[in-house]
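Worked Example 4.2. Consider the chain below.
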Amino acid sequence: MHPLYKKINISIKQFYLIFSLLINLNYWRTLILTHKCTKRSIKMSLEESKTVPRRVLTEVFSQGKTGLIDEIFHNDFTSHTTSGKVKGTEGMKTTISMNRGAFKDPRFTIEDQVAEGDKVATRYTWSGTHIGEFMGAAPTGKQVTFTGIVIYRIADGKVIESWDQFDALGMMQQLGLVSIPE
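Applying the procedure from the previous section yields the following structure tokens:
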């Protein structure tokens, strides 16, 4: 046995046990303190990141404030939708303009939002009145309501990418453009 161990009267096994406990306690203390600080900052930034999609749906889509697109969307923005891809801020401006020309009084109601990392998932209900040509269909004057989910990826406080899935079949049925066989 080493003279140091004899002096403090512990075995090598006991020394390693005590040493391991001290290392583990320090590890857990650091982890807990880091987690508490990180959890607070992540929670704050996640809450802040939810405001970007809210602005997209309420101010840009619902209110038609296309002037905000350059402020809210990244230049390299890409949207993946059931009807294809939209690229860049100019592509988004065209999409908003087409949708607002086809539907008056469009309204997004945000039902739920969940944020994690750089993504925000939003479940919504959309409603509007069909007043202009939409996907080749003449105006019907019908009120349409459907639900959907969109996931936004946020970078530098702006939307850089989105994935949108909505009840397109339900929308087409309400417009009288398709029917489901019984």
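Residues 27-44 have pLDDT under 50 and may be disordered. The first helix runs from residue 3 to 8. Compare this with Example 4.1 before moving on.
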